[in-house]
Amino acid sequence: MKCPECGVNDELCLGGGTNPNFHGTNLEYMPIFRPNIDIIVHPNVDIVHNLEYGIPIHDNHASEIEVVHLLQHFSWKSIPFFLKDCLRVLKPGGHIYFMVSDLEWVFQQVLKEGLTPGHICSIWGEHDYDSDYHRTGFTYPLLRQQMEEAGFVGLTPPFKRNSWEVSIQGYKPQ
User: Is 158 domain-assigned?
Assistant: First the structure.
């Protein structure tokens, strides 16, 4: 739905990158929300912006925000600011969805299997372009705690689309 104040769709994707879907062909088709705001210039990126410094959208704009594999790319020191900025941009009662690599699971696998290329990507990023590296990592308890501290409510228990990721959803208070 278009925002009556600015005319931009009120469902945002933050850090959707080059992929028009969250996971391409390995899972069910999930269309990316638009606009897709990311740091890279690409046809699937609608607004080029470094989200670590804030979201270039006005207060109370978004009914929904999807943040998939973005938080790992930020300094751990900037995560509280970013989460509060997500809360600022959401409408009261608005929904947010986060997906991150589950470092607890990854490290358990490293202890069992050794350090594989897949584990390296989960820990340090894929390095496909200059900003495609990880600067921090998450477990469900850490992400939940940071979301609570930022002011999100109605947080879900952890859920997984696959073994190496963890997701959480929450809401901006009414």
Answer: yes
